[in-house]
Amino acid sequence: MCKYCLQCDWRINETGGYTESEASRLAIEHFVETGHAIDSLRLPPPVVLKN
Ligand SMILES: [Zn+2]
After folding, report:
1. Residue spans per domain, the chain
2. Ligand 1 centroid distance, CA of 37 (Å)
3. 44 CA from centroid of ligand 1 (Å)
4. Cα(41) to centroid of ligand 1, in Å?
5. What's the mean pLDDT when you consider all of the chain?
6. How many CB atoms lie within 10 A of CB 43?
7. Which end of the chain is more exposed for a tag (fewer CB within 10 A), N or C?
8. Ligand 1: distance of its center to the CA of 46 in Å?
9. 3-41 burial by CB neighbour count: b if 16+ within 10 A, else e?
């Protein structure tokens, strides 16, 4: 899960060492401080084999 700002270069992801809840809190703080909209991006799921 990666969270990123739609209006500036702010972003965080799991490789930064944040837990999901920490990442969510930081995203909310960025929104509160700047009014920027935050979106989240899930990494593509592993390839699913089809029948
Ligand atoms: Zn921003």
Report:
1. 2-41
2. 7
3. 24
4. 15
5. 85
6. 9
7. C
8. 30
9. bbbeeeebbbeeeeebeeeebbebbeebeeeeeeebeee
